[in-house]
Amino acid sequence: MLELNNIEVVYSDVILVLKGVSLGIEDGQIVALMGANGAGKTTTLRAISGLLKTELGEVTEGNIRFYGDQIDNSDPEEIVKRGIVQVLEGRPSFEQLTVDENLKVGGYSRRKDREGVKKDIEMIYGYFPRLKGMKQRVSGYLSGGEKQMMVLGRALMANPKLLLLDEPSLGLSPLMVKEIFLVIEQINKERKNSILLVEQNAMAALSIADYAYVMETGRIVLDGFAEKLRENEDIKEFYLGLSNVGKRKNYREVKHYKRRKRWLS
Ligand code: ATP
Fold first, then answer.
1. First-last CA distance in the chain
2. CA of 40 to the centre of ligand 1 (A)
3. Local structure of residue 140 (DSSP, 8 states)
4. How confident is the model at residue 112 (pLDDT cuts 50, 70, 90)?
5. What three-state secondary structure class fits 35?
6. Which atom of ligand 1 is nearest to the CA of 42?
7. Rounded to the nearest whole angstrom, what is the distance from the C-alpha of residue 17 to the centroid of ligand 1?
8. Is 116 helix (H, G, I), strand (E, B) or coil?
9. Ligand 1 center to 101 CA (angstroms)
10. DSSP per residue over 150-215, as a string?
11. What is the pTM of this model?
């Protein structure tokens, strides 16, 4: 459904961030995009959703195709209409509005379909029963996990074909990450939404993804089926801090290892 072909992204005409990124997502897949801070994961999502424009960024080489149509450098509204919705890092919400109102805002593009919107709000409370008891709570008072559930729900209200999720696990407890990732997987299975999941939490991402890419300084350096990558020694060492005998490595060793850039071998 989605193809990035060798894209290059430049901010403010001079800052080259993505240096020939290619990746693909098939209908119904969960694809993880992993990598350290500053690798270019968010920039990749922005290139797909059109939000690069708001950051003075531009796709300067290559192209992005969604069901065959070229969409790079299109306006974000146009991309949402095609069925691609991005959930931003940091879970921004309308803090003064209630949970229910936030969800309704997500269904704005379908506002004429009142019945459909109502039904989908109930569907979201079904996925996140915790939110149901908080319908009338002002969203500014929600915990990080509750807010993550709400922004996910809000994105679903637009009825997307492809969801772009930017670090949903950020700052959440392991238990909350587990709860949210189980629902992401359930949504993917039941509603057939494809998902591109940007994550630094490789363990969580690989537990639900079908396929994964690893980025480093603006390039894809490794990709493969998630179940294979879970067993990959490089991934285990670098992301999970485990050596092949299951022993935890110390940070200096991991850093040293990173310098050797074994991804590339
Ligand atoms: P993180 O996990 O820290 O969010 P990331 O992999 O998502 O990292 P990006 O946010 O895409 O990485 O950033 C990649 C590079 O692009 C960084 O060096 C960053 O400083 C730069 N960058 C990001 N946004 C802009 C911008 N609006 N203008 C200029 N440079 C930017």
1. 30
2. 6
3. G
4. confident
5. strand
6. 7
7. 8
8. helix
9. 31
10. HHHHHHHTT--SEEEEE-TTTT--HHHHHHHHHHHHHHHHHH--EEEEEES-HHHHHHH-SEEEEE
11. 0.88
Q: Which of 39, 55, 38, 35 is nearest to 47 (CA)?
A: 55
The best mutation among 42, 46, 214 to test binding of ligand 1, ranked by most ligand atoms within 8 Å of the C-beta, falls on 42
| Pocket mutation for ligand 1, best pick of 9, 33, 41 (most atoms within 8 Å of C-beta) | 41
**Both tokens assigned to 174:** 């392991």
Bridge partners (DSSP) listed for residue 31 = 196, 211
Joined together, the tokens standing for residue 30 give 């969960």
Helices (H), the chain: 41-49, 76-82, 99-106, 114-127, 129-132, 144-156, 174-191, 202-208, 226-230, 233-240, 251-260
Pocket of ligand 1 contains residue 11 by CB under 6 Å: yes
pLDDT digits (tens, 9 = 90+) for 200-259: 888 889 999 999 999 999 999 999 999 999 888 877 777 655 555 455 555 455 554 454
41 lines ligand 1 (CB under 6 A): yes
